[in-house]
Amino acid sequence: ELRFGGQLIPNGKITQEAVPSETLDISPTQTEALYNPVDFRLVVSGKEDETLQAVVVRPSGSKEPVEIAENNDGTVNVNYHPKERGMHELHVTTATDGSGVRMPLKGSPYKFFVDNAASGNVTAHGPGLSY
Fold first, then answer.
1. Of 115, 124, 116, nearest in space to 79 by CA
2. Confidence (pTM)
3. Residue 23: what are its φ and ψ, rounded to 5°?
4. Which end of the chain is more exposed for a tag (fewer CB within 10 A), N or C?
5. CA distance 112 to 106
6. Which of 42, 46, 63, 57 is nearest to 107 (CA)?
7. Torsion angle in degrees (nearest 10) through CA of 50, 78, 110, 107
8. Structure confidence at residue 126 (pLDDT)
9. What is the DSSP secondary-structure string of 79-103?
10. Across the strands, what pairs with 36?
11. How would you class 128 by CB atoms within 10 Å of its CB: exposed for 0-12, middle for 13-18, buried for 19 or more?
12. Interacting residues of 126 by C-beta distance below 8 A, sequence separation 6+
């Protein structure tokens, strides 16, 4: 029985055929929203950049390591490409000695809110951030 707009179509028939997905010429749709990258410039005078590590904690609770780039002027850049909307935390730690114990950098964690890319709203809070 085949209907259109709730009305029965007399002698209406439909034929369906299942084919392997590999034979379809369909490009995958994007499932993640696009967000503007977030760039931090942190003051780290006296810290060796190879002992610094950075991790972003997403609103969902998942953790994502991020790279740190040395500026050779007592600061480092941290670049992050968000994958979800909401309040994030950037945790930056340094090794205190050869024991493997890691301590947070002063002011860490740095909290920032990510909104849709079209809104242009990205804010960062916390001491140690410089513009």
1. 124
2. 0.62
3. -85, -10
4. C
5. 16
6. 42
7. 40
8. 62
9. EE---S-EEEEEEEEEE-STT--EE
10. none
11. middle
12. 107, 108, 109, 110, 111
| CB-CB contact of 25 with 111 (8 Å) | no
Q: What residues form DSSP beta bridges with 94?
A: 52, 103
Closest CA to 87 of 118, 60, 120: 60
Q: 106 is written with which tokens?
A: 């002063």
The residue assigned the tokens 């810290």 is 47
Q: What are the distances in angstroms from CA 12 to CA 5, 9, 15, 35? A: 13, 5, 10, 47
Within 1-131, strands assigned E span 3-4, 7-8, 38-43, 52-57, 63-66, 68-70, 75-80, 86-95, 102-104, 110-114, 122-125
- Write out pLDDT tens, residues 18-34: 888 777 776 665 555 57
Model pLDDT, residue 127: 64
Cβ-contact 52, 31 below 8 angstroms: no
Tokens matching residue 68? 């740190």
Q: Which two tokens stand for residue 71?
A: 């500026």
For tokens 């995958």, the residue is 28
Segment 90-124, tens digit of pLDDT? 999 888 766 678 888 888 899 988 877 555 555 66
